[in-house]
């Protein structure tokens, strides 16, 4: 009967070089696997994330632009509505408003003791607008309080009266009493069919 020799065990001192070689080969294999497979995938993932960030920024910018456009459209609609209402209810035609304006002018003249015959009226077509300006000139004598009261009275009118000019024509009593010419205006739109107010958006 033959006696079989026992297998030699692992001796770290003798097999250290072999073990180091195996570990080195495994490390090289792992590094190669990383370089060949994982790194391109990671790079592609980074590029995908970067592209996603660009898309998100572009979408955010586009969303902000759309919101700005919606706000501009809303404001345009509101201003168009206000302008249409102004044309229809505040401006009016000369035939619609002239009588009531003249009555109010006479009332203002009587209130401030102005001779109605001294009030001058002129009309002027405003080129390029289709509007007619109706201007009234008042001679007014009094002090600054009287002037303030007159302007306040005009500004409270429902007929859209605008103070165009206050002209000093003379002074008495050391400037306490002033002689003034005050010009105020209002505007008429043309009759229906001649010039229409701006159209409303659908």
Give a verbal description of the structure.
The chain has 202 residues and is an alpha+beta fold. It folds into two domains: 14-91; 92-188, Ribosomal protein S6/Translation elongation factor EF1B (Alpha-Beta Plaits, 2-Layer Sandwich). Helices cover 54% and strands 21% of the residues. It has three helices and four strands. It has helices spanning 12-91, 94-111, 144-155, and strands at 120-126, 131-142, 162-172, 177-188. A four-stranded antiparallel beta sheet has the order 1-2-4-3. Strand 3 and strand 4 (177-188) form a beta hairpin. Residues 195-202 have low confidence and may be disordered.
Structural class: alpha+beta
Count of discrete structural domains: 2
> Strands of the largest sheet, in order across it?
1-2-4-3
The level 1 CATH classification of the largest domain is Alpha Beta
Tell me what the CATH architecture of the largest domain is. Answer: 2-Layer Sandwich
State the CATH superfamily name of the largest domain.
Ribosomal protein S6/Translation elongation factor EF1B
Choose one word for the global shape: rod-shaped
Low-confidence stretches: 195-202
Instruction: Give me the Rg, rounded.
Output: 46 Å
CATH structural fold name of the largest domain: Alpha-Beta Plaits
- What's the count of strands? 4
Helix share of residues? 40-55%
Mean pLDDT: 76
Series of H and E elements: HHEEHEE
DSSP helical segment count: 3
The oligomeric status of these chains comes to single chain
Alpha-carbon distance between the two ends: 112 Å
Please state roughly what percent of the residues sit in beta strands, choosing from under 5%, 5-15%, 15-25%, 25-35%, 35-45% or over 45%: 15-25%
**Main sheet overview:** 4 strands, antiparallel
């Amino acid at each position: 009967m033959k006696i079989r020799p026992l297998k030699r065990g692992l001796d770290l001192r003798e097999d250290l070089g072999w073990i180091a070689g195996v570990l080195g080969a495994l490390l090289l294999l792992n590094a190669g696997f990383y370089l060949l497979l994982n790194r391109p995938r990671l790079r592609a993932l980074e590029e995908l994330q970067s592209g996603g960030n660009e898309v998100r920024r572009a979408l955010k910018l586009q969303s902000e632009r759309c919101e700005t456009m919606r706000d501009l459209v809303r404001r345009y609609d509101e201003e168009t509505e206000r302008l249409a209402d102004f044309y229809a209810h505040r401006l009016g035609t000369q035939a619609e408003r002239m009588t009531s304006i003249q009555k109010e002018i006479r009332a203002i003249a009587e209130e401030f003791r102005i001779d109605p015959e001294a009030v001058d009226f002129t009309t002027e077509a405003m080129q390029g607008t289709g509007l007619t300006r109706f201007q009234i000139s008042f001679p007014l004598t009094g002090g600054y309080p009287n002037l303030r009261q007159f302007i306040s009275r005009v500004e409270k009118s429902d007929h859209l009266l605008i103070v165009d000019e206050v002209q000093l024509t003379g002074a008495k009593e050391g400037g306490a009493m002033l002689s003034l010419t005050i010009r105020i205006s209002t505007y008429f739109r043309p009759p229906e069919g001649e010039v229409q107010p701006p159209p409303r958006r659908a």
